[in-house]
Structure formats: C-alpha cells, structure tokens
Amino acid sequence: MSNPVLAALQERRSIRKYTDREVTREEITAMLEAGRWAPSGKNNQPFRFLAIRRNDPRIARLADCTIYSHIVHNAALMIGVFLDKNCLYHELKDHQSVGGCIQNIMLAAHSLGLGSVWLGQMMNN
User: Fold this and answer.
1) Which residue ranges of the chain lie beneath pLDDT 50?
2) What single-letter DSSP state applies at residue 37?
C-alpha cells in the first residue's frame, strides 16, 4: 500500500509475546507524544500517562489485576493511560478521547517496530 497511514492501520497487530529488547527513552517519548496528539474536546487533553519498565516493582501488582499476567510480566514496558477527571470537558467524549489516545500510542509503537496490546481487562479489577 502506498499510503503509510493506511498501511499502518492495516498492518498493526495486537502482540502478546515479546522479545528481551528494551524500549528506549526516545521511543517512549515518541509514543507518549503520539498519544498526546489524539483529538479531545476543546483540546483539553484529559489523558495522563504512567510508563513502567519491566524491572519496576509495581509490575507484580499490575499483573495481579489481570488474567493476562504473563503479558504484564513479559512486556519491556507498560503504559498506563488514565482519564484526569479534574480536566473533564464532557465525560463521554473524554472517554472516547482516551481511546483515540491509546490507538495513537499503539500505532506509534508499530511505526517504531514495537509490538503492543491493549489490556482493557485491567480496568475491571
């Protein structure tokens, strides 16, 4: 496909097995920046991020929040995306914005040659 945006949309996959390769600070910054560029009502950007590397002691507690704990333990990086309720413009629209933000992060990861998966099940716990 000649259009790189459409190609990225079609080529991106949810990846659940990872290599030992570490994610660089520059790659993390690029992904978070892509997330920040997601559309939001009145450009309020209600999303907040927490990037946690695999050797962080909080990983064990995060793994306990999901039936997909093997993914959490094996990932080089976890990016938590949160909705800042103090910055709400419109609750439904802001939740939609967070979804767009996560999609942007995943597309950025793909463009950097990194695999990613959205673990929404963690919200249940």
Assistant:
1) none
2) T
State the number of CA atoms in the 13 A half-sphere of 107 facing the CB: 19
Q: Is 116 helix (H, G, I), strand (E, B) or coil?
A: strand
pLDDT value of residue 122 = 73
Do residues 16 and 74 touch, judged by C-beta distance below 8 A? no
Residues in CB range of 81: below 8 A, 6 or more apart: 35, 47, 48, 49, 98, 101, 102, 105
3-class DSSP state for residue 38?
A: coil
What is the DSSP track for 42-73? Answer: GG---EEEEEEETTSTHHHHHHTT-TTHHHHH
pLDDT of 55: 92
The H-assigned helical ranges of 1-125 are: 4-11, 25-36, 58-63, 69-74, 91-111
Which stretch of DSSP H or E encloses residue 77? strand 77-83
What does the pLDDT read at residue 120?
Answer: 83
